[in-house]
Design a protein that fits this description.
The protein has five helices and two strands; from the N terminus they run E-E-H-H-H-H-H. By secondary structure, it is mostly helical. Strand 1 and strand 2 form a beta hairpin. Helix 1 packs antiparallel against helix 4 and helix 3 packs parallel to helix 5. The longest helix has 26 residues. The relative contact order is 0.16.
Length: 192
Amino acid sequence: MVKLNRIYTRTGDDGTTGLADGSRLAKDAARVAAYGSVDEANSAIGVALLHASGAHQEMLLRIQNDLFDLGADLATPAGPEGGRALRIVESQVARLEAEIDSMNADLAPLSSFVLPGGTALAAHLHVARTVTRRAERAAVTAAAEGDINPLALHYLNRLSDHLFVMARHANLALHGGQGDVLWVPAANRETP
């Protein structure tokens, strides 16, 4: 269990931060950028939660907890921990996939790209989705530099899909049941 008595330690004043195994890395290292972006995604989901209820709220709360697991995973280099390290596991990825499939069953197939917006919940979910994509890119960079749990990458990829589908699902009541705010290519161009 985590116990925080002091918030500041001064150990990071030299531009380094401690990892879960006690080693230290520069604060701009790829691994640190990856779990920092995961923290940003979690914060964006926290804002989306202000507008969520019912099943959406329940899913987002589970995801927030998973993102702390994911941050711990990314902050723990591979080593002889004997299985004690907190890692993302296949069942967490599978749960996202099942939730995507369940929400997607209510949605019409897309005929265009979706503009980020609609309801307040959908708009915030799109922000969380784009931050999650950034976290995924950072985790891919970190994986190229060191050993990263492949399921962490799978989770981030699935999560951005989940947030996209949930945003569409949150917009179901808009536009006479059509839901999505669609991109209309060249809609604002003047023709010569």
